[in-house]
Design a protein that fits this description.
elongated; mainly alpha; 52 residues
């Protein structure tokens, strides 16, 4: 029973930290352009030179 007095606050603290990290990533724009990266990897543009 005394273990619950330690585990519950620790779990709540870790959950709040995860929520804070998620909110920070939303504000930083991490999820703005989800399709852009998928399209850029398939783009075979002639602008880039191959390594010599």
């Amino acid at each position: 029973m005394t273990a619950l007095l330690i585990i519950i606050p620790v779990v709540l603290l870790v959950g709040l930290m995860a929520l804070g990290a998620f909110m920070w990533s939303l504000r930083a724009g991490q999820y703005e352009d989800m399709d852009g990266a998928a399209q850029r990897i398939l783009d075979d543009s002639a602008d880039e030179h191959p390594p010599t």
